[in-house]
Amino acid sequence: FFFLMIRRPPRSTPLYSSAASDVYKRQVKVLNYSERLKKFQVLVLSTQQKKFVSRLSLMFYEEAHDMFRERLRQCKERRENVENELRFQNYVDLLPLSASTHIPPKMLEGVLVRVTFKDKRHADGVIKRLSKVIDAIYRRAIKKCLVLEKSALIEEMYK
Fold this sequence. Notes:
With about 160 residues, the chain is α+β, with helices and mostly antiparallel strands. It is built from three helices and five strands. It has helices at about 65-95, 105-110, 125-155; strands at about 1-5, 25-35, 40-45, 50-55, 60. The protein has a five-stranded antiparallel sheet, with no helix packed on it. A hairpin with a 4-residue loop joins β3 and β4. The protein starts with a strand and ends with a helix.
């Protein structure tokens, strides 16, 4: 059994108020996970009520409350960092390919020189495919640099 921190507003609180994130501690048993709903099914032990919840914040019996809060804070921070990185990646991927250049041939040669083949029969095809992958990675990196450079210039303007 775990203590589950269920996020729900008090009954008298409107749905979208700032108090809607109040946390209530419930002792629950996790019963199942619904792939279709993308939610956990839990049994609230005090009421024997079954509920579906989308997130679980588990506090273990021996865990101190301040350690639990710190662990939750770190998890939220990491989730926020990942979400920011994904937004950045999506933005970069939406930029047109014309925003970047192809990998310089000398640089590509320098990478491909390090490639060794046990079976020389397929080397040409593998090198061609590998060259395309390396070029795509290079172009994506160039687009990232362009975005970061522009954001640094904008930041400088507002200082």
